[in-house]
Amino acid sequence: MDLVITGARVVDGSGGPSYRADVGVADGRIAAIHREGAAGPRPSAARTLDAGGLALAPGFIDMHAHSDLALLRDPDHSAKAAQGVTLEVIGQDGLSYAPVDDRTLAEVRSAITGWNGDGSDIDFDWRTVGEYLDRLDRQGTAVNAAYLVPQGTVRILAMGWADRPPSDDELAAMKRLVAEGMEQGAVGMSSGLTYTPGMYASGTELAELCRVVAAYGGYYCPHHRSYGAGALEAYAEMVELAREAGCPLHLAHATMNFAPNAGRGRDLLDLLDAAIAEGADITLDTYPYTPGSTTLAAMLPSWAGEGGPEATLARLADPAETARIRHTMEVEGSDGCHGVPIEWDTIEISGVSAPELEPYVGRTIADSAAERGEEPFAVAHRLLVADRLGTAILQHVGHEENVRTIMRHPVHTAGSDGLLQAAKPHPRAYGTFPRYLGHYSRDLGLLTLEECVAHLTSRPAARLRLPDRGLIREGHRADLVLFDPDTVADTATFDDPRSLPEGIPHVLVSGRPVIRDGRRTDVLAGRSVRRTPV
User: Fold this and answer.
1) What H or E segment, with its residue span, contains residue 55?
2) Number of other residues whose CB lies within 10 A of the CB of residue 35
3) Residue 37 in 3-state DSSP?
4) What Gene Ontology terms describe what this protein does at the molecular function level (predicted)?
5) pLDDT averages per 10-residue partition of the chain, 534 residues
6) Cα(108)–Cα(97) distance, rounded to whole angstroms?
7) Cα–Cα dist 515/269, whole Å
8) Would you kindly state where each structural domain of the chain is located, as residue ranges?
9) Which of 166, 334, 457, 517 could form a disulfide with 13 if both were Cys (CB 3.0 to 4.6 A apart)?
């Protein structure tokens, strides 16, 4: 064998009791599991790794990642590798970089600069989903990646940024693009239904696309229409849509935010339990924090985004349109802000593209406005225009009770939703998985260690239909993480968000060490993980 890990406490991902064993690896797969006290010879190899009683688990799967360009920009990718993540699902929230043409690529790059940077340092040598996945495979990365066809990007390619129903030909074009993405290896389709132009799609339009996804054995992953006012109704719409289309449903960052939803996490779970009891195939992911993270432009009303980023900037240059935008955001409650009137003291600037705006980073818009003797909207308007919509924010609108309630549900998985480019990104990008293991499992006891590992491994692998990942079994991929259950902890904070975790000394991808003794190696063993054919 290539490697034997000796004396490990195997937490195998099933949720069952852990056990002591030696685990042998050969050709990138688990080749032998020899339990303590079992008969027969122990596995041997030229290289051994003494676990010393550390927990050995399958590699963690990040079900909601925004590393679409980060994997190409910085293949080292310690933000995720150091957490024990060995697979990320990207193409999230309905906006990513494939499929595109020259026109739509430029528009998408502008629209999500706040998520991933403007991409000026990237060679965009792909246009299709398959070509993007091929690029990952040629370059190699620290971790594996699976891709969701982004519905908003598909809509841009088929019909631009128009706020109207598609024609028959446009709908046929969208269905063809989704089918091509699935054929090229995507595992499903995502939507961002509080982001333009994805939010312009009706339930009927989305159901047509979901039928295509279901035919290929994929799943639908919506960022649904509201996490604030009307959140429960928005969840119910997605459940009914998936039922109508016969498509498995995975709810992205499924929480209940804003004041109207305090303490209502159980209401969401009751809705899902009823649907599951009737046969619905539903899973969800969450991050273990209360604030959210997105772009300042995402707070705008949907009508302000019609026509694309340049049209939005033109509206912001028009005093009458700007006044209308302000009224919608501050009085009515913009659909971009989940139907809730915006509270500027909850909006913290986490990153800017224009260097002259850096003094705003790390402060709320309300604080910056008070310091300057201005109205908060004036500060927000200045940022949107000067930064050309590229400003990233944290939005402090979550509820800890809801976070704890939802994470304990049997269909729950973990997703960091981490944006990596901002000057002060959300610490979830660097801390999600050790935070589940340390703070919520060990310290608070909300989940046993075995349950917590199952949430991070076998459950997401099952959703992704990956028969050889997510469990420690002979023949499975040797994507493995060794961690200390007593010391594992997130160290990333809102003041120091890029601090790497503690207590995770070893991470293997396909049996090769990407983290050794707590340090990143130069191994780039990650590749694209493509849809398993039906």
Assistant:
1) strand 55-58
2) 11
3) coil
4) hydrolase activity, acting on carbon-nitrogen (but not peptide) bonds, in cyclic amides; N-acyl-D-amino-acid deacylase activity
5) 97 98 98 94 93 97 98 94 98 98 96 94 97 97 97 98 98 98 98 97 98 98 96 98 98 96 97 98 98 96 96 98 98 96 97 95 97 97 97 96 98 97 94 98 98 98 97 98 98 97 98 97 97 75
6) 7
7) 37
8) 295-393
9) 457
